[in-house]
Amino acid sequence: MLSKTEILEKLRGRLVVSAQAYPGEPMRDPNTMAQVAASAVIGGAAAVRIQGLGDIQATRSAVEVPIVGLWKDGKDGVVITPTFQHAYAVALAGSHIVALDGTRRERPDGLSLAETVKRLHEQTNALVMADCGSLDDALAAADCGADIVGTTLAGYSGERDKTDGPDLELISAIREADLPALLVAEGRIHTPAHAAAAREAGADSVVVGTAITHPATITSWFTEAVED
């Protein structure tokens, strides 16, 4: 079993691929997502980010790299692994890292982020990735003990405008804060140039999802280009 330090080092300077399909889509199947994740690993992904307990369990059997697991529940507000019970289930399903909403918004179960992180560290072996939307989120999440802070919710939590591409300004600001947590760039990273820019801005690791693992969206980009 990898130690927490070893897991973090496996992510440092590397690509993480997010393999998720939305409800109602043809690929919305745990085995399919596990196969997509395994294909990403062949391409060089150092870890994979997976949504849903069934998908996490299937992927754990399909890959040998660390799994960043999450559970989306709800439509508005805090929906990424919103409660401790969601987080605990994600850990038990086989995640090496539990990704959860790392904003300063109120959580559905009434627990603070600090309480949730503390319980996860005490009751599981999983690391915690806080999906943040601002510098203040990242500062607070690191102070709460999060092992990783990500820019996942930049442009979606109401604190920052949605950028065209990754929020490089936020990545730089978090890097300049010199937090103890690993800094992961995530969100609207659609090209290799975007990924390189995120690293140059200070990200320790980069997560790419849609541009690699979501055929419907990728096809729509090309369809628009051809038809226009």
TrEMBL record:
CDD domains named in the record: NanE (cd04729)
Source superkingdom: Bacteria
Any GO CC annotation of this UniProt entry: cytosol
Keyword Isomerase attached: yes
NCBIfam families: PRK01130.1
Protein function: Converts N-acetylmannosamine-6-phosphate (ManNAc-6-P) to N-acetylglucosamine-6-phosphate (GlcNAc-6-P).
Record's protein name: Putative N-acetylmannosamine-6-phosphate 2-epimerase
Organism per entry: Brevibacterium linens
